[in-house]
Please model this.
Amino acid sequence: MNSDLEKIKEIAPKLFNLSGMSVYGAVAGMIIENKADKYAYQNGLFVLKQKGSIVEIVNDPKFQPKIWKVEN
Model:
């Protein structure tokens, strides 16, 4: 998974000018299986789950997101 996340450094500059910006990651799903939410959390990703007709960030206050710095 981490190698997939690092691909943002290759792909993003071709699509957007993110030079000098910080990028955060997230996973979202209506149904999250096989503890994917815990895996995402442990890898610094925000976890978004459906709650009725809205989407909610479910990370606890102790959560420390991983920050990807984009340098061009």
In short: Residues 2-69 form one domain. The chain has one domain: 2-69.
